[in-house]
Amino acid sequence: MEIQIGKTREEDAAAVAEMYAEGSAALRAAGVDQWQNGYPALADVLEDIRKGESCLLKADGVPAASMAVVFREPTYDKIYGGRWLTDGENYLAVHRVCVKNSFKRRGLTGKLYAFAASLALDNGRSSLRADTHEKNFAMRGALVKNGFSECGRIFLADGSERVAYEKILTEERDVAKEKIRLVVATGNANKLREIAEIFPECEVIGQREAGFSGEAEETGSTFAENALIKARAAAEALGCSAIADDSGLCVEALGGAPGVYSARYAGGHGDDAANRALLLKNMEGKTDRRAYFQSAVALVRPDGRETVAEGRTYGKILFEDTGTNGFGYDCIFFSDDLGKSFGLASAEEKNAVSHRFRALQNLVEKCGGKL
């Protein structure tokens, strides 16, 4: 896929407005009061173009993603409940980042931010700033994934509150840098897809593709122990760093079950429908529906260094399958963060709050920002 990024031209304004309309519809469906009431529209795009602020990413010549950049944002003059990472006005503000639906989950958001960083550095700016709605979990996750830190709250001109983010820049300007290969010790295609969506800047491959077809026996009594068992086996066999995840659903009324036995709760390994049916049967008559997904992620390097990180996402067990997205227990898990079933959530929404995303982010932090 050939990527070209530059200032938006007037003949592409309608394509950008169409992207905004798709984004507005997605936010409305998610119950997020952002980009509503006809904003942003074609007139806003044309005004951005007139001021030289609109940028367009084309993939193989097709308009695929866009953003607007400004060298001073008046609403950033005051920040509440925190502080910016840098002082003064030596920043570039990035607004209205949007990817066309048919091009989502291809790492284009990261390419837009990389282009914005290069543009900022070329103009002597030392950071990028951005803001988004508190409930826009997809964008909040994208900002964190692309190196932004949450700084506090700002208020737009109409009084709407937004979460403020900033990223301090270095002199790295490689917009299309080579992807880091990430070997994941699993044969679970769903997990591989989810990790690839969380880390689009990495080439995520399974252990079989990397050349290891062995199956480590998960004899641990905790998620962390099982993750280490799998990562150690792959790292030793392949002679390279390997990541493994072990995760599952823990239900309060069932004493934490199914827990580490989540994938084989009904007996057979990976029979999602049977596992959900048994769980719902065991929850009959239970008034306490509280539950959480937990993930433990282990990184094992060839020199023997090991790092483990964990993450959780909380919610409740529903009474029946709700939605068809995701896998495993997703369609019977009501996410407290999203206010709906994971089965009704888009991949971007789920990945922004999931247990696996949080565990992987914690792992990156423990590794000093690099895998």
Label this structure with key terms.
single chain; 371 residues; alpha+beta; Aminopeptidase; Maf protein; 2 domains; 7-stranded mixed beta sheet; 10 helices; 14 strands; 30% helix; globular
The average pLDDT value, as a whole number, equals 88
**Biggest beta sheet summary:** 7 strands, mixed
Number of domains: 2
The CATH architecture of the largest domain can be named as Alpha-Beta Complex
Structural class: alpha+beta
CATH topology of the largest domain, by name, is Maf protein
Backbone CA Rg:
22 Å
CATH class of the largest domain: Alpha Beta
Order of the strands making up the biggest sheet? 1-2-3-4-5-7-6
Secondary-structure element order, N to C: EHHEEEHEHEEEHEHHEHEEEEHH
Beta-strand segment tally = 14
Query: Beta-sheet strand percentage?
Result: 25-35%
Q: Approximately how much helix is present in the residues?
A: 25-40%
Tally the helices: what do you get? Answer: 10
CA-to-CA gap between the ends? 25 Å
Residue runs with pLDDT of under 50 for 5 or more positions: 173-178
Overall geometry: globular
> What is the assembly state of the chains in this entry?
single chain
